[in-house]
Amino acid sequence: MTDHQLPHAPRPLLRRPSDGELIDVAGVAHFFRLTGEHTGGRFAFEEFSLAPGTIGARPHVHEGHDEYFYVLEGELTLHTGDGEVTAGPGCLLAATRGTPHGFRNEGPATARALCLYTPAGYENYFRDVHAAVTSGAEATDELLAEFRSRYQTSTCT
């Protein structure tokens, strides 16, 4: 190796359809395809699904990251801070820092969507909640609020 060669040149990362981390939290299947470990903390990417009648997230606000939701199948009822809107395939919601948002599935079919996080890190919230519930804790509003506060997130009242 010469002085001008880098020991580890950056390379693209190919993720196959089954590559990822599945985290089931309160009836929402979060399948993280990319996490902060893959992107140097810059970005996280997940596909999630939720059955009809499932609340994905009650209205909340993030101060430390932005989220972008893109609906693939079914419908999501999205809280936008000004009210709610039903979003079907192809709809995109940008929930930038400081904006209230939330989602649920009131439709008749399972909803699937993508969620992108910038920067990465909020995937650890889902890991924490999943670990707590797996250890026997109940996913109460109080428990979720405690975990959210660790990630600069607060619940809207």
The shape is globular
Q: Report the span from N to C terminus.
A: 59 Å
Average pLDDT metric: 91
The largest sheet, given as strand count, sense and whether it forms a barrel, is:
6 strands, antiparallel
Strand elements, count: 11
Query: Helix share of residues?
Result: 10-25%
Question: What would you note in describing this structure?
Answer:
With 157 residues, the protein is an alpha+beta fold. The strands form 2 sheets. It has a 6-stranded antiparallel β-sheet with strand order 1-2-3-10-5-8. Strands 7-6-9-4-11 form a 5-stranded antiparallel β-sheet, with helices on one face. The longest helix has 12 residues. 25% of the residues are buried.
Task: Provide a quick synopsis of the model.
With 157 residues, the protein is of the alpha+beta class. Helices cover 17% and strands 39% of the residues.
Characteristics:
157 residues, alpha+beta, 6-stranded antiparallel β-sheet, 5-stranded antiparallel β-sheet, single chain, 17% helix, 3 helices
Secondary-structure blueprint of this entry?
Blueprint: E1 21-25, E2 28-34, H1 36-39, E3 44-50, E4 55-62, E5 66-73, E6 76-79, E7 84-87, E8 92-95, E9 101-104, E10 111-118, H2 123-134, H3 141-150, E11 153-155
Antiparallel strand pairs: 1-2, 2-3, 3-10, 4-9, 4-11, 5-8, 5-10, 6-7, 6-9
